[in-house]
Amino acid sequence: MTIRRFLTAAGAAALAAALLSFATPIPAVAANGAAEHLAAGAEKYAHGDLKGAYEEYFEALKAEPGDFTVLHRLSRAESELGEDAKGEEQRRLVGAAVQHARDAVKAAPDSAQGHLALAVALGRQALKEGPKTRLSLSREIKSEVDRALAIDPSLGRAWHVRAIWNRKLASLNFIERAAANTVLGGVPKGASMDNAVADLKKAIALEPDYVNHHLELGRTLQMLKRKAEARRELEHAVALPPTSSPRDPRYQAEARELLAKLGKD
């Protein structure tokens, strides 16, 4: 090889190396950006700033559109924000939560957290729908929460979701039962208030400081006229530190309202 040819080849190699050195950091920068937004979102979520957490997770999604952790955390923030939103904004947030949870399940089908996020988002969507749509969604909710528990039975929130599924279906009124016969071929077998109580007790055993577990167990026991037990759970919900969820202050306010009603009965 002549000196000129050697220099030409060396120059081409150097140029290629230089181009690669500029090109390769781009995915790393995106990943680092997503990680920074994820960390910031987790911190804001822990401090009760749902809107701030949502904004951080949304920025993380721009950096890493198919990332499982980004998707399921964004879905949770959206579905919880949807609880307090109204009208079209509520529908938009809950719809986005469902879609992002579906994307999370596709990204990591063997992760319990993705199936749980989808069950939660569908549950919130069902609350805003009419009887037939709500009952139709109940089938998928049960399927997703059962899948989550099959993968990881230590998820307290999954037991909570299944408990609410049991309670909702077990307490259908006459019109809703008629709709269930049309949509589901009848009320699903196994849906009962006793199972709702058992599932909530399991959730509490796994996550004893989670305020909403105690609130919903208290509410379920109140519906069953088991007032002394209901009062104990609601008082526990009020007494816990509001650190298990950004919505703890709202849950504790609901517990106080239920306690006031118990006092009047």
Provide structural commentary.
This protein is mostly helical. The protein has a domain of 94 residues: Tetratricopeptide repeat domain (Serine Threonine Protein Phosphatase 5, Tetratricopeptide repeat, Alpha Horseshoe), CATH 1.25.40. The chain is built from 13 helices and no strands. α6 runs parallel beside α8, α7 packs antiparallel against α8 and α12 runs antiparallel to α13. The radius of gyration is 24 Å and the shape is globular. The N and C termini lie far apart (99 Å).
Q: Can you summarize this structure?
A:
This protein has 265 residues and is mainly α. It has helices at residues 3-23, 25-46, 50-63, 68-84, 87-107, 112-127, 131-151, 156-170, 174-183, 193-206, 211-223, 227-239, 248-264.
Which descriptors would you attach to this protein?
13 helices; disordered N terminus; 81% helix; Serine Threonine Protein Phosphatase 5, Tetratricopeptide repeat; mainly alpha; 265 residues; globular
Give the topology.
Elements: H1 3-23, H2 25-46, H3 50-63, H4 68-84, H5 87-107, H6 112-127, H7 131-151, H8 156-170, H9 174-183, H10 193-206, H11 211-223, H12 227-239, H13 248-264
Helix pairs in contact: 2-3, 3-4, 4-5, 4-6, 5-6, 6-7, 6-8, 7-8, 7-9, 8-10, 10-11, 11-12, 11-13, 12-13
Largest sheet: none
Kindly state the mean pLDDT as a whole number? 86
- What order do the helices and strands follow? HHHHHHHHHHHHH
CATH topology of the domain at 35-128: Serine Threonine Protein Phosphatase 5, Tetratricopeptide repeat
Our Rg estimate from Cα atoms comes to 24 Å
Query: Into which percent range does the helicity of residues fall?
Result: over 70%
CATH class of the domain at 35-128: Mainly Alpha
Distance between the termini: 99 Å
The count of strands amounts to: 0
Multimer state: single chain
Continuous helix count: 13
Low-confidence stretches: 1-30
How much of the polypeptide forms β-strand, as a percent range? Answer: under 5%
Q: What sort of overall outline do the alpha carbons produce when their principal axes are compared?
A: globular
Structural class: mainly alpha
Going by CATH, the architecture of the domain at 35-128 would be: Alpha Horseshoe
